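Re: export button greyed out
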Amino acid sequence: MLISWHHTNRSELNELLPEAIVILPIGATEQHGPHLATGTDWILAEAVTKQAAQLVHDRAARPLVLAPTLPYGASDHHLPFGGTLSLTPETLLAVLLDLTRSLAASGGRRLLLVNGHGGNIGICHAAAAAASSRYDVNVAHLDYWQLARDTGDTPVPGHAGIFETALVLAQDEALVAERHPRSEPLSGPAIDGVHSAESWRRIDGYTDHPERATTEAGRIWFEQLAGALGDRLLELAEAL
Amino acid sequence: MLISWHHTNRSELNELLPEAIVILPIGATEQHGPHLATGTDWILAEAVTKQAAQLVHDRAARPLVLAPTLPYGASDHHLPFGGTLSLTPETLLAVLLDLTRSLAASGGRRLLLVNGHGGNIGICHAAAAAASSRYDVNVAHLDYWQLARDTGDTPVPGHAGIFETALVLAQDEALVAERHPRSEPLSGPAIDGVHSAESWRRIDGYTDHPERATTEAGRIWFEQLAGALGDRLLELAEAL
Amino acid sequence: MLISWHHTNRSELNELLPEAIVILPIGATEQHGPHLATGTDWILAEAVTKQAAQLVHDRAARPLVLAPTLPYGASDHHLPFGGTLSLTPETLLAVLLDLTRSLAASGGRRLLLVNGHGGNIGICHAAAAAASSRYDVNVAHLDYWQLARDTGDTPVPGHAGIFETALVLAQDEALVAERHPRSEPLSGPAIDGVHSAESWRRIDGYTDHPERATTEAGRIWFEQLAGALGDRLLELAEAL
Amino acid sequence: MLISWHHTNRSELNELLPEAIVILPIGATEQHGPHLATGTDWILAEAVTKQAAQLVHDRAARPLVLAPTLPYGASDHHLPFGGTLSLTPETLLAVLLDLTRSLAASGGRRLLLVNGHGGNIGICHAAAAAASSRYDVNVAHLDYWQLARDTGDTPVPGHAGIFETALVLAQDEALVAERHPRSEPLSGPAIDGVHSAESWRRIDGYTDHPERATTEAGRIWFEQLAGALGDRLLELAEAL
Amino acid sequence: MLISWHHTNRSELNELLPEAIVILPIGATEQHGPHLATGTDWILAEAVTKQAAQLVHDRAARPLVLAPTLPYGASDHHLPFGGTLSLTPETLLAVLLDLTRSLAASGGRRLLLVNGHGGNIGICHAAAAAASSRYDVNVAHLDYWQLARDTGDTPVPGHAGIFETALVLAQDEALVAERHPRSEPLSGPAIDGVHSAESWRRIDGYTDHPERATTEAGRIWFEQLAGALGDRLLELAEAL
Amino acid sequence: MLISWHHTNRSELNELLPEAIVILPIGATEQHGPHLATGTDWILAEAVTKQAAQLVHDRAARPLVLAPTLPYGASDHHLPFGGTLSLTPETLLAVLLDLTRSLAASGGRRLLLVNGHGGNIGICHAAAAAASSRYDVNVAHLDYWQLARDTGDTPVPGHAGIFETALVLAQDEALVAERHPRSEPLSGPAIDGVHSAESWRRIDGYTDHPERATTEAGRIWFEQLAGALGDRLLELAEAL
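Workaround output, generated via the alternate export path:
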C-alpha cells in the first residue's frame, strides 16, 4: 500500500501509522552552478522516492506513507554563490527531531529519511540516532546517490556535475540552462571527509563536467536508482 | 515576470533577487478532522499563491519569485488527534529566520510570507519583524484566509469546516473523505485570541459543518481569494 | 477579588490559582521618539490593566491575580535609535513559555497577556498557542490599544504619536519632553503586516503628530481603554 | 545625577549612556514560605537600589541610570511549593545577554546588576563575564544581601527567614502574613555551595525564624544595606 | 613537529597555528557491556591519535598540534544500560562549533577530528561542514575504526565486541573485566544506517564475541590502525 | 573506595552510583600569559582532585568516583590573546546539565564539581542549582583555589601569576617557559565582581609576578590544597 501523508486524513493515518514505514524525502534549495536548477536536490530525492515506492509498494511487507518533502537543507557552504535558501545545521536538526517527535505522537514507529543533499548527511545521521533513543522510533537514513555507487556504472555523484545534471534533464529539460565546456576535470577535495570553503570557491561551486550530461544517461541512472531504492524499501519493510 | 526559485539557477536568481519580491507559501501538515486531507493548509496556501501570481505577474511592478512551499508549521495543538507532523514554535521561528538570512545573503530585499495555518500566525509575525531588523529585508506576511473576510460573502474560515473543505474539494475531490452531518453548529473559542487545548478537544478538532461544503462553492471562494491576493501582490510590488 | 501575585504569599496563591485568571502585563523599554519616555509601553499596559481590574473585579466570575509587569519586550527594530533595552524574539518566547510553565506548575489554569507593544504581538500569539498545548493552560492575549479601535473615536495608535503621548501625559506629564511640530503627517508602512527597518528610519522612529497630544484627551482615552478592557475581563472570566 | 531609564527619552539617554553607570535590579517572584510576599526578592532589590542611589548620586563620579527592575529570576527549585513564576537558567542568561547587547547598542559602557535572589547568583556571574567580552561592556554584579554580612550585626540572610521578613516588614507590613513559631532553628545545607531539592523540602521552603522578625530591625538593616550599596556605587563610579 | 596544545603556551601557539594541523580526538564515556571500561572510546581515540602522530610527525608537511581529548560524546542510546555520561547531539554540535570558532579566533586554519564513537559520526560530519563555512577553517573528520576496514584482516568493529575489547586489552588489561562466552553471534541492525533502541536492548548493549578478544590481537590491530592514521595525517598535511 | 568512571564498567557503576559521590574536575584550555601552559586550569583541577581523593578515600563515608576531566571551559575573555579553546557559557551550561542528566539516568545521586577556572564559576553555580531541581541530584561545586585562601599563607590566586605558575612548576617544569620580570605589581579589577575586557588587555592577560614562582612553593601549596580538598570531600561524603 502506498499513500501520501498529506493526501489522506487522520482517520486513515491513525490506522496505518502503527504498522507503516513513513518515508521523508529531504533535499535542499541551493546553487547548482550557473546551469542547474536550485531545487535539484529535493526534486531528485522526491522523484526517486516516489518512483521506488511505486515500483515496490504492492510487494512490501508494510504500508508505505510518503511525508511531504522537506525542500530546505543545510546549505550554508553554498550561500556565497547566491541562489541559496539554507537552514543552519542547528535548525535542521531541530526540524527533523520535531518531525520525529510528531511521528511518535501520531502513533508512528518507523521512519526512513531519503536524503538528496551532501550537506545534510551529518544531521540526518545525528537526527536518526537521537530520535531512536528520544522517541523510541526506528529510523533509517540513506543518501539516494549512494545507491548509484552500488550499481557500478555511474560516475561519482559530485555536485551539479554530469550525474545530477543528467538526472535533472531526465526529469525536465527546462530545469537545465546552457552549459559551457570546462577545459579540464574539476573536483572537490580529493580526500574524503574534508570540508573546505576554499575548495568550493576553487571549482566555482560545481564539480566535473555537467556539459557532458545527457537526458538519455539520466533516464538510465534514474531507473537504476529507483530500482535500488525499491530494493532497500523491501529490505527495510522487513527489518525496521 | 514569474518564476519558481527552485526551477531556475543561481545566475538568473543573482540577477533577479535585488529587484524581486520573493513569495514563500507556508502551511502545515496536521489533522483536519476525520474527513479532510492533512496537507490542506499548505496545499491551499500554495494553490492560492500560484493562482494569484499567475493572474497578476505581468502587471506587477517587480518580478515575482516563488520559493518552495514550507509544508510543515506549528501544529502542536493538533498532535493529540493524530496525523500531525508539527514544528515547535521555536523551530519554526528558526526556520523562517534562517531562510530570511539566506535570502539577504543571496541579494534578496523583499519577502512575502503567505500563510495557510492559524497556528503559524504569531511566528510569521515575529519572524517578519525580526528579519526586517536583523537582515534589513522588508518582510510582509498575510494569512490567505483573511482575504476572504474582505469579500464579505464567505463564512468565518474555521478549521476543516465548510470553508477549507470546499476549497479542497475544488482542488481535488479525492482529498476529502465521506463527511457525516453534525447535529449542531460547533465552534472554537467564542472570544478572539483565546488558545485552549480543551476547546479543541470539545469540538473533536474541527469546526462548523464540513458536510455542507460543495465543490462549486470552493471554486468561487478560491477565485475570490486568488483575486484578492493578486491585488495585494500588486500593492506590495509598489510598497515593499 | 483582585490581588497582586507579588504582594501575597504562596498559601493564598495555592488556594486562588486553580480558579483565578492571572493577568500579565507586558510592554517594552524602547525609544519613543525624542520626546516620550522609553517606558511608555509597559507603563501604559500596566496602568490600563490595573484600572480595568479595579473597575470590574468585584463583578468578575473569577478572582483576578496581577502578575508583575514584564518591562522588556522585542524591540530590536528600535535599537538603531538608542535608548532601547530589547529582548530577541527567541528570548521573549522563552520567557513567556517559562512563565506559563511556572503558572501550570503552581496550579494556575488561566492566563491573560495584556500587551502594550506592537513588536510583541507575534510572540504573544505564538507563546499563547504553544502554552495552551504544552502546559494545558488556557491563554488569552490582547493588545490594549486594539480596544481603542472598538470605541471608534481614537486615532490609529501609531508609535509615540498623538495616541501614546496623550495617554502618557495623562499618567504623568513629567514623562513627556518638549515636542516640536512636524510639518506633515507621517506614518509607518501603509500596508498592514509589512515590517521594514527603512520605513522606521524614514519617520525618525515615531509616527504622526505627538505635538498635538493633550493631557485631557489622554484622560478620556485612558478611561475608554480601561472600560473596554474591564468588559473583556468580565467576558474572559466566563469563557477562559 | 540620577534618572530612571524608563522615565526619560532617547535624547537624554543618548547623551548620558556613554558616561553613565546603568543599574539593573533583578529579583524573583517565588514562594517565600507561607507568610512572606512572593515578590520579596525583587521588591527588596529595587528598594535598596533606589535608596542607595538617592543617597549618593550627587556625589558619584558618573550619572546613575536605573533600568526597570527584572521581577523574574531562576527559581525552579521553588516550583514544588507553588506561588512561583520562574525562568530557567538558560532563559535568564539569554535575557541578561540581550539586555547587555542592547545597552551596548544604545551607547552604554557600564552596567551594575544588583541581585536580590540566591538562585540568580550563577547566571548573573556568567552573564557579566560573557557580556564583558561579547559586547565590551564593563559589568559588575553584586548580591545586595552580601553587603549585610560586611556590617557584622545582621544574621545570615537565609530565605524568607528573619532577615528578609524584617526587611519586607520595613517596606510594607501588609506584605507579611501571620507567622507561627517554629520549634527549632532550621537551615539549608550546612556546607556552602551545595544545591539539593531534598534540603529545601526538609525545611518547607524557608529558613530560620521569620516569626522573630520585627519592623524595627528591618528598618535598621535596610539603612545599613542601602548605605553599603551607596558606598559600592561610589567605588564603582570610579572603577567601572 | 608534534606538540600538545595544553602543554605549551600562547606564544608558541600563536606562531604555530597559522601553519599547523590541529588534531582533536573525541570519544565517549558510555557503557561498553558488563566487561569493558566505559572510557573505551576516548581512550582508544586518544591512544591511536598519539601513536600515529608520533610515527609521522617528523615527516609531516605541517606541524601537528594535539588538542585535549573530548571525553564525552553523544551516547543517549546507551543511557538505559547505566554507566553513561552523554551529551545530547545539540550540545555536542555546540561544543564542536565553539571549539572551531576558538581555533579560528586563535589563528588556526586546519582541524582534524579523530572520532572514536559511532554515535558521534553525524555530529562530527555536521560540525565539520558548518565550521568550514562559518569560520573558514578547513575541517576533516574520520572515525579511527574505519581505517581498520582498509587493512582487510580485522573484524567489523562493533561495540564492545572482540575488536574494541582486544584494543583495550592492549592498552591496559585492567580495563577489561571477566568475559563470559555468548552462545551465538550477536549483532546490531543488519542494515546499515538503521537506528533502533530496540535492537540495542536485544543484544544487551554490546555486539559479537568480546570473550574471544586477546591482548595479542589488540596489539596487532592497534599498530595497523596507528599506521593507517599516520598515513592519513601525512596526506592531510599536504591537502588540508 | 576510589575509582575512575572511565576505567571501570557499567556493572560496577550500576552498583556504586546510588551510594557514591561522583567528582567531575573542570578546567579550561586558554592562554596563561606568554609563559604558562594553556592547559593549566584543567591540569591543576585534575591533579588536586586526584591527590585529595587518594588522601581520603579510605576514610570517606561514601565511594568516590572520578569522572573524566572536562578540559574546556568558558574562556571567551581570553580569545583575543590566542591559544584559547573556549566554550560559550550557553554551551558549558548545556554540557554540565547533560552530564548531570546522564548521572541521574545512570542511578547517581551526588555530584561534586571541582572547578579550576575563574570564568566557569557562574556556570558551575547555575548548573548545580538547575541540576538539583531538574534531576533531583545533589550537586556541590567549589573552586579549588578558594581552598588556598583558607590556609592563610598563599597569595591571592590571580591568573597565570605566581600562584598558578608555582603549582604548574610542581607538576612539570616543562610546562613553564622562561619568565621575564615585570617592573611592577599588576592585577585585575580592584573591585570584586567586575568583568572587563579592557582590564585584561591592560595587564596583557596575566596577573602579578609569575617570575617569582618556584617549584618548591608550588609543592607546598599543592599539598595544602589537596589536604583542604580532602577534608572537604570527607565533609561532603557525610552531607551530600
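Chain D touches chain F at residues 74, 76-77, 79, 88-90, 93-94, 119, 121-134, 136, 138-142, 189-191, 193-198, 232, 235-236, 239-240 (CB under 8 Å). The button fix ships in the next patch.
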